[in-house]
Specification:
333 residues, alpha/beta, eight-stranded mixed β-sheet, three-stranded mixed β-sheet
């Protein structure tokens, strides 16, 4: 092991110890990120297939279906799911998905997994990675052929902000250690959510963001970006295209690796200055996607809010956050 790798591991280990992130069981081996090289990406071991456009975007005139940088915004009616699935069916795709069920959030896992089986990339190879501090409480859910679940044990954390922030480190580590030569795409999803409609190949892209259901109609000045210049997540008043949610994002392995690595580094940079971005990793995701434009954007159909009335432009709800009492389920609220 060369000197650079020794220094790299020492820095990462110090960060992990400070945050109390991981038990030794989380990672068995593999290279970790070098905090001093933000563009360091592992060699590509598996090339994803070429992606066609999702369909006829002109069929919807009531919503934005194409961004200013000419990538699609996916709404119901802008794609043909049968045509798209048939295109990908013989590609032997493997879709990875991560979900974090720590503390009282474990209660949401059963419905998440059950509804995922019904709606998420049905007919494709799917590998779900569940991160939890209660591995014995992970429910048994019958999965179709080609679909599997792996439990990753993580420590109990006393602050929901730390749980939120730790996700990016763990996602980057999973991709780096296990997925680059195995899967094609990855989606990172919130456990306190349920699937309610088709989520399939129309969502595939190099870097995929989901429009936040609370802000997709808001003016830029009303978007809840991090506004303190001291933070690495800072967005100036004239910056920003959309506001993306932190509860659902994805893409190919290389792009999500780059995103998660960048957010991890920037989170620690903020922490050394004694601050946290206003919405933790969501703030860092929004900064990253402003500078590194998504290649596909999913409409709020892909993470609606259960407490919100359906708007006329929302023809279907595919994935939604369930109603909950944050004061009861979050450890430090």
């Amino acid at each position: 092991m060369n000197l650079l790798k020794i220094k790299t591991r020492a820095v990462i280990l110090l960060c992990v110890l400070l945050m109390g992130l991981l038990y030794s069981s989380v990672r068995q081996s593999g290279r970790v990120i070098d905090p001093f090289k933000q563009n360091q990406i592992s060699p590509t071991k598996r090339q994803p297939p070429m992606l066609p456009m999702p369909g006829n975007a002109t069929s919807r005139t009531d919503v934005l279906t194409m961004t200013s940088w000419s990538v699609p915004v996916v709404w119901e009616g802008t794609f043909n799911p049968v045509l798209l699935d048939s295109f990908y069916q013989d590609k032997s795709l493997t879709i990875a998905a991560t979900v974090f069920a720590q503390g009282k959030y474990i209660r949401f896992l059963k419905r998440f997994l059950e509804t995922m089986e019904q709606h998420f990339f049905t007919g494709f190879n799917v590998h779900v990675f569940v991160y939890t501090d209660q591995p014995n409480e992970v429910p048994q859910v019958k999965m179709a052929s080609g679909r599997q679940l792996t439990v990753k044990t993580v420590p109990t954390l006393n602050r929901w902000q730390d749980i939120s922030a730790s996700r990016m480190f763990l996602i980057q580590a999973l991709i780096d250690d296990e997925l680059l030569d195995y899967a094609d795409f990855i989606f990172c999803l919130d456990v306190d959510s349920e699937f309610h409609g088709h989520w399939g190949t129309e969502s595939l892209g190099d870097l995929v963001g989901v429009l936040h259901p609370g802000y997709y109609k808001a003016q830029r000045s009303a978007l809840p970006y991090e506004r303190r210049p001291i933070s690495k997540a800072y967005m100036a008043p004239e910056e920003g295209d959309f506001y993306y949610c932190g509860g659902a994002f994805g893409g190919n392995l290389q792009e999500v690796q780059r995103l998660s690595q960048n957010c991890t580094i920037n989170f620690w940079d903020d922490r050394t200055k004694g601050i946290e971005a206003v919405w933790q990793e969501e703030s860092h995701i929004n900064r990253y996607m402003w500078l590194n434009k998504p290649s596909k954007i999913l409409s709020p159909e892909y993470l609606w809010q259960d407490i919100a009335a359906r708007k006329p432009e929302i023809h279907i709800i595919r994935f939604f956050g369930v109603v909950k009492n944050y004061a009861e389920i979050r450890p430090n609220v």
